[in-house]
Amino acid sequence: MGFPKLNEETGIDALNSWLATRSYIEFYSLSQADISCYRALESAPSAAQYPHAARWYNHISSHEPVFSDIPGDTSKTYQDYGPELIERPSFGPSENDDNDVDLFGSDNEDDAEAARIREQRLADYKMRKAAKPKAIAKSVLILDVKPWDDQTDMVALEAAVRGIQRDGLVWGTSKLIAIGYGITKLQVNLVVEDDKISTQDIQDEIESFEKYVQSSDITSIGTGYDLLNSIYSPDGHNFQVDYAVKASENGGTSIGIRCNEGVVLALEKVAVSKLSKPGANKRIGSVDGHIGVVCSGLIPDGSSLVERARDESHSWRQTFKAPIPTTDLASRLGNHMQVFTMSSSLRPFGVMAIIGGVDTSEEIGVDGEVGSGPACGAGGKVTGKKHGGTFLYMAEPSGQCLGYWGTAAGRGRQTAKAELEKLDLEGGDKMTLLQAVKEAVRIIYVAQKDSKEKGIELELTWISTVDGPTKGRHVEVPKELREEAERLAAKAEDESYDDDEDTNKKDDDDKMEE
């Protein structure tokens, strides 16, 4: 270890190579190692032949007046520094040297014993891990089973459902819940092992009991798959979306009816206070004058969605110089709602939005085709196609947006949909706009019959074609017409109640005669 003689070429060459990547002999600052090597040189190295050594020599010589103040060990010579170019003579141990005495045993023996212990511990750990039971992923679910009508034997229905027995399936408590017209649905809790049970298979088997079961719905209430919006359950559910649907069903019942003469939107508003001002706190919003949007569910979410619809309408009008078609607005709202189902930092909208509108059937000159964006670039001469008629859509928390002739949302959704299905709405030519207003009010009254809420206020709007009463604009139904529709709906409800009483009395008389 160390430099050869620095007054010879081999030594200077070794010093030059050593300093090729260093500024100093040792470490990163001037020390006594540099002074020792400097003094060992008889003269400055040739800058042409030994540039690194010459650079170092000139730098060290500039500190010659303060050599005594430089830190380091002054007892060492230049041979104590540098590369491994020479080997110092190795002398064997003396006769009195005790270093060859093994006082603590062989290192090899220690390494072998340590390796044996380590392997034994790893084997024990693997054995314990293999014997430990694996965690079983379970989901706690609620199953809703809907019968065909009020004549269905609910006891037999429940017995059939509980008769489904599988490994990994445990049935829990159950109850009957009224859904209207004397019809009750079965709601039962169950626990399933996710690796063994598919909820879709359970539903398919339940719905095979066609004598009793009309449909079934299953939702989660206690599983890890509902913690984040960006997680799917093993059977493909996004439970946060399901919960958003439940939130929308806590709002007032909303209805949309479409016919060839226009669209009617209706909503029942629950009075939050006796001091609430009638007619205030509107829940049905207008968009661009010819479209109405009604939301059932969380009121702030609905307000936010209506504002988004107005922004989309404004953007469309600025771009195409024409009102936004109802179809395009509904599609954009659906896309906006769907974005909120894709990130764990967002939550789905807790509303269902019914979008109704009447588009003009006149040809509109725009840059491209109405509803499809510019087709020929700025300054083009292509005129818009005829794009008109009445439209009705519903956007759900999942982002799904479908067209309807009649649809409903909110707490009375099931009852209202059943009533809408009784009407002959398809085609839109079998019902006038005035009839649609009266039917919408009647269905709202029917849907709220089983509701425990009191102080219901009705909000009612309509949009007619350009030759109708509203001239293609979305406005409130006149007070006189609304009150007349409410009077007829209340009368129909009373008559229905009397008919039910007569039927029940007749059944009781028949039983007494038997």
From TrEMBL:
<comment type="similarity">
    <text>Belongs to the peptidase T1A family.</text>
</comment>
<dbReference type="InterPro" id="IPR014717">
    <property type="entry name" value="Transl_elong_EF1B/ribsomal_bS6"/>
</dbReference>
<dbReference type="GO" id="GO:0003746">
    <property type="term" value="F:translation elongation factor activity"/>
</dbReference>
<dbReference type="GO" id="GO:0005829">
    <property type="term" value="C:cytosol"/>
</dbReference>
<dbReference type="Pfam" id="PF10587">
    <property type="entry name" value="EF-1_beta_acid"/>
</dbReference>
<feature type="compositionally biased region" description="Basic and acidic residues">
    <location>
        <begin position="503"/>
        <end position="514"/>
    </location>
</feature>
<dbReference type="GO" id="GO:0005085">
    <property type="term" value="F:guanyl-nucleotide exchange factor activity"/>
</dbReference>
<keyword id="KW-0647">Proteasome</keyword>
<dbReference type="InterPro" id="IPR001353">
    <property type="entry name" value="Proteasome_sua/b"/>
</dbReference>
<dbReference type="InterPro" id="IPR036282">
    <property type="entry name" value="Glutathione-S-Trfase_C_sf"/>
</dbReference>
<dbReference type="InterPro" id="IPR049720">
    <property type="entry name" value="EF1B_bsu/dsu"/>
</dbReference>
<dbReference type="GO" id="GO:0019773">
    <property type="term" value="C:proteasome core complex, alpha-subunit complex"/>
</dbReference>
<dbReference type="InterPro" id="IPR014038">
    <property type="entry name" value="EF1B_bsu/dsu_GNE"/>
</dbReference>
<feature type="compositionally biased region" description="Basic and acidic residues">
    <location>
        <begin position="473"/>
        <end position="494"/>
    </location>
</feature>
<dbReference type="InterPro" id="IPR018940">
    <property type="entry name" value="EF-1_beta_acid_region_euk"/>
</dbReference>
<comment type="similarity">
    <text>Belongs to the EF-1-beta/EF-1-delta family.</text>
</comment>
<keyword id="KW-0251">Elongation factor</keyword>
<dbReference type="InterPro" id="IPR000426">
    <property type="entry name" value="Proteasome_asu_N"/>
</dbReference>
<dbReference type="Pfam" id="PF00227">
    <property type="entry name" value="Proteasome"/>
</dbReference>
<dbReference type="Pfam" id="PF10584">
    <property type="entry name" value="Proteasome_A_N"/>
</dbReference>
<keyword id="KW-0648">Protein biosynthesis</keyword>
<feature type="domain" description="Proteasome alpha-type subunits">
    <location>
        <begin position="225"/>
        <end position="247"/>
    </location>
</feature>
<feature type="region of interest" description="Disordered">
    <location>
        <begin position="468"/>
        <end position="514"/>
    </location>
</feature>
<protein>
    <submittedName>
        <fullName>Proteasome subunit alpha type 3</fullName>
    </submittedName>
</protein>
<dbReference type="GO" id="GO:0005853">
    <property type="term" value="C:eukaryotic translation elongation factor 1 complex"/>
</dbReference>
<dbReference type="InterPro" id="IPR023332">
    <property type="entry name" value="Proteasome_alpha-type"/>
</dbReference>
<dbReference type="GO" id="GO:0006511">
    <property type="term" value="P:ubiquitin-dependent protein catabolic process"/>
</dbReference>
<dbReference type="Pfam" id="PF00736">
    <property type="entry name" value="EF1_GNE"/>
</dbReference>
<dbReference type="InterPro" id="IPR029055">
    <property type="entry name" value="Ntn_hydrolases_N"/>
</dbReference>
<dbReference type="InterPro" id="IPR036219">
    <property type="entry name" value="eEF-1beta-like_sf"/>
</dbReference>
